[in-house]
Amino acid sequence: MLNDFISLIFPNVCVSCGKSLYKNESCICTYCAYHLPKTNFHLNHDNPVSKIFWGRVSIFSAAAFYGFNKGGKVQHLIHQLKYKGQKDIGYTLGKLYGYELKYCDDFNTVNTVIPVPLHPKKKKKRGYNQSDSFAEGLAESMDAAADLKTLFRAFESETQTKKSRFNRWKNVESIFQLQNSETLKNKHILLVDDVITTGATLEACAHTLLQVPGVKVSIAAIAYAANH
């Protein structure tokens, strides 16, 4: 009854479309969950996200949940997740995507999920890393472990927003490091981020992770921004 009373004053609404949520829904209504622009890249090994990394770093598989278009619902979701404190969005999307990846041959052996880390200064300023919650949702659905500590950002980098592909790579090429890396030996790691554009940050993270013996790295993101 208390929850019903609170919902009258502060109604739970879908962060995508703004309509009221039913009791069994969290953050995103069922309609939006089924109608947001899924890529289904995980069903095609040689998909556009995988091709980003060809010749750059040895990735086992790569995919993104949604297509990203400026002004679209997916951009709105990610903005709410990244800048408005709505961490539940990342967790909810992670759980939804994890259910699909768990039954896909390219991803069903993943046993560790690692988010692209923020520098401690940026994390303190924002209050959280938006990719952490996505990683935790994925890990739960995939029966994997979420590792938020082993990979860390040792140096603060400049914003990537308006950089070219080459300059994005130069901006992040040596800023990621590992601690207690022996825990990752022989693991199939799913490296995750919110949006993939040029893939420079993920490439730098993957190079660092691949220094660990026996490691296999796959990549997943909430969205793929083609031509951005």
Walk me through this protein's architecture:
The protein is of the alpha/beta class and 228 residues long. The protein has two domains: 1-35, no CATH class; 36-224, Rossmann fold, CATH 3.40.50. It is 36% helix and 16% strand. The protein is built from nine helices and seven strands, in the order αααβααβααββαββαβ. It has helices at residues 2-9, 30-35, 48-52, 73-83, 87-101, 120-126, 130-142, 165-172, 200-209, and strands spanning 62-67, 112-115, 145-146, 151-153, 176-178, 188-196, 216-224. A five-stranded parallel beta sheet has the order 1-7-6-2-3, with helices on both faces. The longest helix has 15 residues, at 87-101. The protein is globular and about 50 Å long. 39% of the residues are buried.
What structural class is derived from the secondary structure elements?
Answer: alpha/beta
Query: What does the largest sheet look like?
Result: 5 strands, parallel
**Biggest sheet, spatial arrangement of strands:** 1-7-6-2-3
Mean pLDDT: 89
Helix-strand topology string: HHHEHHEHHEEHEEHE
Question: Under CATH, the topology of the largest domain is which?
Answer: Rossmann fold
Q: In which range does the helix fraction lie?
A: 25-40%
Q: What is the strand content? A: 15-25%
Secondary-structure arrangement, i.e. CATH architecture of the largest domain: 3-Layer(aba) Sandwich
Number of E strands: 7
CATH class term of the largest domain: Alpha Beta
Termini, distance in Å?
Answer: 47 Å
Task: Calculate Rg over CA atoms.
Answer: 17 Å
Number of domains: 2
User: Which stretches of 5+ consecutive residues score pLDDT under 50?
Assistant: 1-10
How many helices? 9
